[in-house]
Amino acid sequence: MEERHKNIERAIDAVVESYSSDLEINNLGVVALPNARRVQEALAHLRASLFIGFYSTRRLTSENLRHELSKHLYAAEEILVEQIERAVSYEQTTGRSGPYTECFAERTMREFLCRIPRLRELANGDALAAYHGDPAASSIEEVVFSYPSIQAVTTYRIAHELLTLGVPLIPRIMSETAHAETGIDIHPGAVIGERFFIDHGTGVVIGETAVIGNDVKLYQGVTLGALSVPRDKDKRKRHPTLEDGVTVYAGASVHGGDTVIGKGSVIGGNVWLTHSVPPGSRIFGRPREEAPDGEAG
């Protein structure tokens, strides 16, 4: 036992010594970063508030609805005010962004909470899209409880609102939580319309500047990615646009900020596409062009 303790102490000494180097991950002597576990707790409360009829641990009625919602929204607000304050303090200390106005976190959460009714409308549309878009779905209840698309897209919609309100770090923690849970990677900066459905979902990647219209359906393994660009130019649009009613089948990759998939088009499985197609297109098989290197980020 004593030898085991000595081994642990030697390991601790070695790790402490490693902090004397200039590793970018050291993060010593700066303000506290957001706590990922606390952000995940807040996310769970927010998901519950959107689907409270599915998350309540007791029979939900009009009489107890307000109390059940209060438990989740008060908790989410308290956690996120603290975590947003940490995030903006860190960003200002490192000089990456800011300055932020006084009481930024409280004002941001006040505005975010006002958007929850609209988020519930969007979540309802996403659930209906999954139900109507998958013949294997037997009910809306089955969709909400068991479809990874609902978990991933709901998280995206929460994270996207926080990002549009100027919150740093927190939206990415949320989106990567859903990525780990579902295998679906949606950057919170993407713009996604109503009634969006990802069937099966595993391996789907939607990049930061992607724009997706209404009534779009993706299958597993789809990438809406970027063509490689220098980092100093990465603020331009790098990811494709999918107009209303587009369907993209499994394994297809659509790349490039200038690429627009026209309304109602269908992109077949395993297609690699780096150019625009007009509305109503049907693209199957590999296009004849030589595909350049692409990335999803």
Give a description of the structure.
With 297 residues, this protein is α/β, with parallel strands linked by helices. It has 2 domains: 31-183, Orthogonal Bundle (serine acetyltransferase, domain 1), CATH 1.10.3130.10; 190-297, 3 Solenoid (UDP N-Acetylglucosamine Acyltransferase, domain 1), CATH 2.160.10.10. The protein is 44% helix and 12% strand. It contains 9 helices and 15 strands. The strands form 3 sheets. Strands 1, 4, 7, 10, 13 and 15 form a 6-stranded mixed beta sheet that branches. Helix 2 (36-50) packs antiparallel against helix 4 (65-94), helix 4 packs antiparallel against helix 5 (104-114) and helix 6 (116-133) packs antiparallel against helix 8 (148-164). The chain starts with a helix and ends with a strand. Residues 288-294 have low confidence and may be disordered.
Domain module tally:
2
Spell out the helices and strands N to C. HHHHHHHHHEEEEEEEEEEEEEEE
Shape estimate: globular
Number of continuous helical runs: 9
Strand content: 5-15%
Which fold name corresponds to the CATH topology of the largest domain?
serine acetyltransferase, domain 1
Structural class: alpha/beta
Q: Name the average pLDDT.
A: 91
Q: What share of the residues lie within helices? A: 40-55%
**Separation, N- and C-terminal Cα atoms:** 48 Å
Poorly predicted segments: 288-294
